[in-house]
């Protein structure tokens, strides 16, 4: 298992008395697309946010690209450069233009020159279909456009792995397609992705593996066919019935 | 970033400390700082050229001349003067102070230079003519004076209540408006006031005769005390003493002041006569305002930023500083820094510096609170997104959070600037001759309370308007 991108072992997370993650084991191989599903409050976001240590794990080990993320001696800023993240509410920098949003991290961290960063930003914006928004302010964009800028911003750091936390849940239905389209393109280009989503269509089409979580544990995992068509666990079944009926 | 920040923080305090520490060395050796109360004619008051004159002033200056030392007169007000003396901020007090056993506990007095008694004064048309008429009434006195002590000693016997004021002017006004039935004050002081058209009349003979003395802190400045006594003896011998007393209490004195009574008392006339003093007051107020706004803003931003660092100790420190200095009344803080600290450390702090420190701490605490609040008002997702890209805390703060937070803070900053300007007026308590103190001193002489306060109020409004326009212009530049 040398090509493991993400190797989480026995991960626990407590918020006070609330035991949110209960000994999670979670692996992602290189170029793999993993979709995380589960009821609200099951700990999906918490797991995702532990992967780039936006949340401090209580115990357990998190190895990403061979680097121990859970070790406090690890330079977490350096590690994060390699782990892109896309949020449910986009979190575009409101004080900057679209172009500056994409260029900020690479230039501030001395990755590339200002000129190169601008070139790269324009190219990335073009790939997400927003070439004409380079000078726009985030406030003037629709939700779908914002989320595509957020993806471009994460890609500007050239990450090896991308984390998505319900990237389409805050969008009007007609915007969802554009964002999923960009994510599919990424997946096809071999990006390693962990996606928390309720978009079962996307999961069926793109996921190499689906992981079902409930109450802070991984209940069941497998290919989309295994999980969606032949769920082994009652809770998986119950959850899927609810989601598919909606 | 965090380290740079802490270094900057330390440097700020170091330079402030250096500033405070160096300032006292300005005082030359042979100059004594003498505190007084310039609202106490005929002993001490400011004449129409805003020179401090009166019996006490002429005495101390003549004695200084005789004995070969210099004096630097500080118009502090009676209470502040006595406090500053015990804290070592000043060397002596001459302010028509009666020698009492109680005061002798903490002060050393010179040989008496004046003898005076307490009289009662009432409004011109009042029917009250003796102490018995005061039953159930209110009597006005000035804090810390012998008149106040006397009133309190007989209030139970005659059944009246006592209200105290900081300025003679307010005492007299309270009697004139009828809020108080009478006032007790020194006979020389009241005589002077009555003759200059105070609108009161004296109805009792002087009682409770007391002696006035020049005071130093107990056991301190004994050389100064000796020189005062020697000088006073010389003045008494060569006739200069009698000359001074006559000048301020004789018939001539009142006719002279009657002339000043017929001065132009219109707004324009008052402005003309006091133009220089008011200008000086404005300049002092502006200096205090500008310097404290700068210091308080720097201090406030530092403490505010400390409050959002991902470090429990830093946040706790910030919260504590804000809690203490926002919680302390400005007046208490000013007195504590000017009088309290020097009596502990023995180092003098110039009033201006004490004033700046006071405002920096107090206004800075408010600034810190809204700086912290402004930063926290920025959606936490902004910080998370920045950190998720690999930006360190400091860079994320500077490039993403602060630019958004500052926009939220700007109205609070403008508000705080205006409050700072207004709060400079409180520093009159430690004797800084800013606009408010200037007003008090002018009124002590001419008793034109309404007109002078109206002038002072309008000046404040004008300055505040200019400050607001300036701030709005800056706001537009930042947001534009
Ligand atoms: N910062 C926090 N402080 C305290 N409790 C938290 C915090 N964040 C999450 N929790 C708790 O942890 C549990 C898991 O939350 P989490 O957000 O990971 O669930 P989720 O599976 O992402 O749910 P959803 O589908 O609603 O996003 C919940 O019970 C939540 O209340
Ligand atoms: Mg979630």
TrEMBL record, chain A:
A single MF term (Gene Ontology): ABC-type amino acid transporter activity
Organism classification: Bacteria, Bacillati, Bacillota, Bacilli, Lactobacillales
Source domain of life: Bacteria
UniProt entry tagged with the keyword Transport: yes
Presence of the UniProt keyword tRNA-binding in the record: no
InterPro entries named among the record's database cross-references: AAA+_ATPase (IPR003593), ABC_ATPase_HisP-typ (IPR030679), ABC_transporter-like_ATP-bd (IPR003439), ABC_transporter-like_CS (IPR017871), MetN_ABC_transporter-like (IPR050086), P-loop_NTPase (IPR027417)
Organism: Liquorilactobacillus cacaonum DSM 21116
This protein's name: Phosphate ABC transporter ATP-binding protein
Domain ABC transporter positions: 6-240
Alphabetically ordered keywords of this record: ATP-binding, Nucleotide-binding, Transport
PROSITE patterns: ABC_TRANSPORTER_1 (PS00211), ABC_TRANSPORTER_2 (PS50893)
SMART domains for this protein: AAA (SM00382)
TrEMBL record, chain B:
Main location: membrane
Any one annotated GO CC term: ATP-binding cassette (ABC) transporter complex
Subcellular localization, as worded in the UniProt entry: Cell membrane
GO terms classed as biological process: amino acid transport
Molecular-function annotations in GO: ligand-gated monoatomic ion channel activity
Transmembrane spans: 288-309, 321-341, 452-474
Signal sequence coordinates: 1-28
Domain of life: Bacteria
Membrane topology, from the record: Multi-pass membrane protein
Segments forming domain ABC transmembrane type-1: 282-471
PROSITE patterns: ABC_TM1
UniProt keyword terms in alphabetical order: Cell membrane, Membrane, Signal, Transmembrane, Transmembrane helix, Transport
NCBIfam families, alphabetized: HEQRo_perm_3TM
Family classification: Belongs to the binding-protein-dependent transport system permease family.
Name under which the protein is recorded: Glutamine-binding protein glutamine transport system permease
């Amino acid at each position: 298992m040398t090509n493991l991108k993400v190797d989480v072992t026995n991960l626990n997370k407590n918020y006070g008395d609330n035991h949110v993650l209960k000994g999670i084991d979670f692996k992602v191989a290189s170029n793999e697309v993993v979709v995380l599903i589960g009821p609200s409050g099951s700990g999906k976001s918490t797991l995702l946010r532990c992967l780039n240590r936006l949340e401090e794990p209580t115990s357990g080990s998190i190895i990403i690209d061979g680097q121990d993320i859970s070790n406090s001696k690890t330079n977490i800023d350096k590690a994060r450069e390699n782990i892109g993240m896309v949020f449910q509410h986009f979190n575009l920098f409101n004080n900057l233009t679209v172009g500056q949003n994409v260029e900020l991290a690479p230039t501030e961290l001395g990755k590339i020159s200002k000129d190169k960063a601008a070139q790269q930003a324009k190219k990335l914006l073009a790939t997400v279909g927003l070439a004409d928004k380079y000078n726009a302010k985030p406030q003037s964009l629709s939700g779908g456009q914002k989320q595509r800028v957020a993806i471009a911003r994460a890609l500007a750091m050239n990450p090896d792995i991308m984390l998505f936390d319900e990237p389409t849940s805050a969008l009007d239905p007609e915007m969802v397609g554009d964002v999923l389209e960009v994510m599919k393109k990424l997946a096809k280009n071999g990006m390693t992705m962990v996606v928390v989503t309720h978009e079962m269509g996307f999961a069926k089409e793109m996921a190499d593996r689906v992981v079902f979580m409930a109450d802070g544990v991984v209940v069941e995992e497998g290919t989309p066919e295994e999980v969606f068509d032949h769920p082994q666990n009652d809770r998986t079944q119950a959850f899927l019935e609810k989601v598919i009926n909606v | 970033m965090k380290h740079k920040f802490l270094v900057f923080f330390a440097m700020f305090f170091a330079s402030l400390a250096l500033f405070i520490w160096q300032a006292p060395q300005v005082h030359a050796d042979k100059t004594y700082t003498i505190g007084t109360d310039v609202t106490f004619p005929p002993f001490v008051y400011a004449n129409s050229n805003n020179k401090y004159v009166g019996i006490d002033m002429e005495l101390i200056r003549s004695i200084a001349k005789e004995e070969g030392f210099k004096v630097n007169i500080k118009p502090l007000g009676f209470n502040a003067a006595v406090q500053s003396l015990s804290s070592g901020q000043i060397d002596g007090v001459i302010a028509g102070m009666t020698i009492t056993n109680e005061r002798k506990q903490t002060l050393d007095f010179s040989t008496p230079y004046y003898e005076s008694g307490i009289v009662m004064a009432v409004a011109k048309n009042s029917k009250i003519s003796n102490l018995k008429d005061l039953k159930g009434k209110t009597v006005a006195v000035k804090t810390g004076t012998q008149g106040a002590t006397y009133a309190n000693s007989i209030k139970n016997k005659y059944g009246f209540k006592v209200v105290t004021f900081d300025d003679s002017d307010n005492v007299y006004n309270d009697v004139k408006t009828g809020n108080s039935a009478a006032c007790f004050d020194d006979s020389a002081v009241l005589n002077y006031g009555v003759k200059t058209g105070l609108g009161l009349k004296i109805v009792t003979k002087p009682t409770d005769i007391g002696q006035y003395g020049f005071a130093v802190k107990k056991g301190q400045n004994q050389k100064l005390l000796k020189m005062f006594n020697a000088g006073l003896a010389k003045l008494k011998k060569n006739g200069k003493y009698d000359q001074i007393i006559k000048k301020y209490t004789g018939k001539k004195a009142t006719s002279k002041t009657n002339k000043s009574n017929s001065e132009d008392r219109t707004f324009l006339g008052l402005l003309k006569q006091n133009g220089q003093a008011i200008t000086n007051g404005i300049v002092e107020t502006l200096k205090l305002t500008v310097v404290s706004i700068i210091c308080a803003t720097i201090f406030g931003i530092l403490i505010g930023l400390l409050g959002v660092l991902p470090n429990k100790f830093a946040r706790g420190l910030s919260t504590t500083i804000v809690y203490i200095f926002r919680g302390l009344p400005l007046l208490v803080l000013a007195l504590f820094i000017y009088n309290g600290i020097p009596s502990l450390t023995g180092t003098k702090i110039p009033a201006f510096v004490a004033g700046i420190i006071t405002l920096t701490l107090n206004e800075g605490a408010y600034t810190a609170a809204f700086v912290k609040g402004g930063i926290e008002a920025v959606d936490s997702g902004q910080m998370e997104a920045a950190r998720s890209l690999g930006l360190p805390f400091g860079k994320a703060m500077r490039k993403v959070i602060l630019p958004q937070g500052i926009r939220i803070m700007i109205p609070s900053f403008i508000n705080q600037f205006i409050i700072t300007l207004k709060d400079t007026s409180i520093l009159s308590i430690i004797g800084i001759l800013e606009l408010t103190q200037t007003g008090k001193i002018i009124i002590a002489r001419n008793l034109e309370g309404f007109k002078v306060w109206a002038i002072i109020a309008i000046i404040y409004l004008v300055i505040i308007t200019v400050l607001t326009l300036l701030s709005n212009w800056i706001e537009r530049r930042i947001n534009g």
